[in-house]
Amino acid sequence: MEKADILIYGCTILPMNEKCLIQDGALATKNRRIIFVGKRASANKIKAEIEINAKKKIAMPGLINCHTHVPMTLFRGIAEDQPLGTWLKETIWPLEAKLKSEDVYVGALLGCLEMIKNGTTCFADMYFHEDMVAKAVEKSGLRGVLAEGIIEAGNKARGEKMLNESINLAKKFRGYANGRVTTLLGPHAAYSCSPELLTKIKNKSLELNVGVHIHLAESKEMFRKFEKRYRPTEVEFLDKIDFFSVHVLAAHCISLSGEDMQILSKRGVNAVYVPVANMKLGVGAAKVKDLTDLGVNVGLGTDGPASNNTLDMFETMKIATLLQKLVYLNPKILPVHEVLRMATVNGAKALGLGKTIGSLEVGKKADIILIDPSKPHLKPLHNIYASVVYSAHGSDVDTVIVDGNIVMENRKVKTLDEQAVMERAEKTSLDLLAR
Ligand SMILES: [Zn+2]
Asked: What is the value of pTM for the model shown?
């Protein structure tokens, strides 16, 4: 066998495909892809440029955050314990109106740094000045599925302008950063864009062959307001204008009727379950079992760090399963291996990257994390799946590889100056508040 780029050996591997856990395993990468996954004993002929002794560590696919707004790291902790409407109107929107593109870059870099340190290797983002998020993705070494947000809010000219910006980003940054960036169009929500604009977005999406990222059925209050205005529910309304004929990534999916769920299933809409932000804003919880029983693909997201307040997907996995058990009053709901699939393979599928990432198998891109379980809260390791979901924190991630490139080793990030990124973000956030 030709020389590999990286060989990781001695670890327990959670491949997250149909194969079971591999004890004393090995993983090899070459030209950004995985070329070997299996028992260490079968890898003894593999030589590599970089060899990582991962004895006692756990290797798994990098986690996939299917819904966030990373530049909102700058707003972390400045609007707490408020309802969604007040939170948006009184704090977030006025601040966003003052945001400059440079601020977005600084906030996105901080978000990327946080995600690397927590073992997230790919994220779906929707924001303004999204080109700056693309630049942060390039610099940090992460993978991103990016959309420029479109909020019409009754202003037609503004809607058109934002649609054009969203199209430009989708075209210009598709395949950016050595292919680590893919793009979507970003209509904010059915209630903040007119039916005409949503139809245009759908047509553009078909023409450009890119999907859309939208907030859907986030709160009961909005659900009722929407029903009053349009008669059908958000989902029925979007179905009527054939919006679901394109690849749709729909964040939240909380206030859904039985018929709505049937429609999402029939039309192959990808739902994103966002437990922490939904709990924090007190808007409700998606009924994940109802959705998955109907065959809806469900990924997992954090939402922006202003309503979470972290980008830690380990924390999100734990809360995701706990909340569902509470919603259904049944401890068997959303078992650990299922929530892990949401944060990996199902997330990849939701982002249109099912063939590229999400599991550790030969031919897929090398997005790999190593967890160090040599900590009191991870001993003893009887059930690795349960330990990863219920006991591990993002800070237990030791090594992160994205696209075959080591971006963090022994908790030291190689692509970014950690101190400088944090200092710059603090300064930018204070400056923004003083503007
Ligand atoms: Zn959101």
From this structure: 0.97
